């Protein structure tokens, strides 16, 4: 997408501030959950009247979605990242946004820290959203590194009180530097409001009469897919859809586990990357979503379930407990406890009244997780 007209870039900062700050939402990926979040936030800010621009990767996958705000594709794959940072800095110098809101983790720590300090020196307010408090594969130096990283930002946004507590207690980030703003509803994935459960199951060739749980997204160890499979083996009747990004090699251990548990006929695996416009097919085909995570800062999947109106069975870890109220919007079980998870899954599969009540429970928190509410809170952070 083309950059803004050059005459717009020539306006002085004082002139721009008459119409509110110029805001950049910067995300280094173009086809991840961080990208989806960045798009939804930028769209909500734009709809509120803010001057916002999304800076993203060349593999940006939401071109088919209406934007209304500028989208600049600037970043490439990791090996080009140092060169991209130089290009990004040059663009920054030409545009001089007032607020730069980052959504992604460090790739080259020294380079990024220098960049952030230069942007602050030029007068920008630098904001970071800590979607994950630390990398999932924590190394011995990560706490010290991220303690430095978080302290460079003017403000840090977390999605839950658990996130605020973790950063304060483990990384010693001052609470006054942080703001708790929840992750928004992912209803934008509903690209075909007329798609029925029957049609979705027909597309996926699923048994139309079976109760189906959905495990969606990557199969990284912390997601606990093995726990969900052992729990499924303890139940009678329900099936499990496994869908999302996963390579063949990473699925081998799960295929072996499925065979060993004798539940092959109750598990359907879709290992390919699923384009945004096809995501709703898997959620429409399912009766409920299962999140058996071992740890979680936040999860876009629970907000997808929210947007699709599906009840969830999840483990009580991290930021999930801020979103899922046990018995109101979902059922919670202890982590690493396949017996307790199986009990919750059986309860949900066998009680239609409970399913309906939990699904309807999302409507009670609709305002809290609306992007309009989140945009308003985010603008307060920008100006604070």
Could you please describe the fold and organization of this structure?
This protein has helices at residues 6-9, 13-17, 33-47, 81-95, 109-121, 142-152, 161-170, 197-204, 225-233, 248-261, 279-285, 300-308, 320-323, 338-350, 352-364, 371-383; strands at 22-26, 51-57, 71-75, 99-102, 125-129, 155-158, 178-180, 212-216, 239-243, 267-270, 288-291, 312-315, 330-333. With 384 residues, the chain is of the alpha/beta class. The strands form two sheets. A seven-stranded parallel sheet has the order 3-2-1-4-5-6-7, sandwiched between helices. The model is unreliable at 1-18 (pLDDT under 50).
Strand content: 15-25%
Distance between the termini: 32 Å
CATH superfamily of the largest domain: Glycogen Phosphorylase B
Can you name the CATH architecture of the largest domain?
Answer: 3-Layer(aba) Sandwich
- Across the major sheet, the strand order is 3-2-1-4-5-6-7
CATH level 1 class label of the largest domain: Alpha Beta
Order of SSEs, N→C?
HHEHEEHEHEHEHEHEHEHEHEHEHEHHH
Query: What is the number of domains?
Result: 2
Q: What Rg, in angstroms, do the CA atoms define?
A: 22 Å
Average pLDDT reading:
89
Query: Main β-sheet, in a few words?
Result: 7 strands, parallel
* CATH topology-level fold name of the largest domain: Rossmann fold
